[in-house]
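re: the backbone from monday

yeah here it is again, tokenized this time
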């Protein structure tokens, strides 16, 4: 990702030339994270048009894989995306928000493929929470 300081907004990041084929996409990020990112940019002296994290996709992929190995699991970057969507959904976030904001899907019907399967124990817990 070619994220530059100019892409950091008050509540979001502007992703230039995303895989969707659009010119830009907006990614909403908690202000706390954006604050830390801004401090990092200032501390490292990144110029406005330079990449904040000058690493390739392959290098990032390798870092995620290595992190997984350190904790004894097979992990790929796409697994993190799937986990974020599943976590948000299981926490009660409306599926429309998971789809449009977290996953940035153009079509809501794409989203269910990204969510982890619900096991019986989890289903029972939700039923008890909602109706018990």
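seq for it, each position gets an aa:
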């Amino acid at each position: 990702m070619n994220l530059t300081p100019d892409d950091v907004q008050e509540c979001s990041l502007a992703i230039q030339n995303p895989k969707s084929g659009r010119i830009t996409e907006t990614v909403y990020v908690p202000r706390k994270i954006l604050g830390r990112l801004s401090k990092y940019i200032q501390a490292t002296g990144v110029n406005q048009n330079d990449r904040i994290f000058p690493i390739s996709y392959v290098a990032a992929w390798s870092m995620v894989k290595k992190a997984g190995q350190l904790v004894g699991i097979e992990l790929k970057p796409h697994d993190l995306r799937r986990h974020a969507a599943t976590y948000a959904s299981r926490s009660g976030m409306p599926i429309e928000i998971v789809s449009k904001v977290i996953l940035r899907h153009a079509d809501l019907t794409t989203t269910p493929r990204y969510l982890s399967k619900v096991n019986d124990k989890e289903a029972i817990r939700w039923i008890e929470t909602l109706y018990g």
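The chain has two domains: 1-54, 75-132. The two ends are 46 Å apart (CA to CA).
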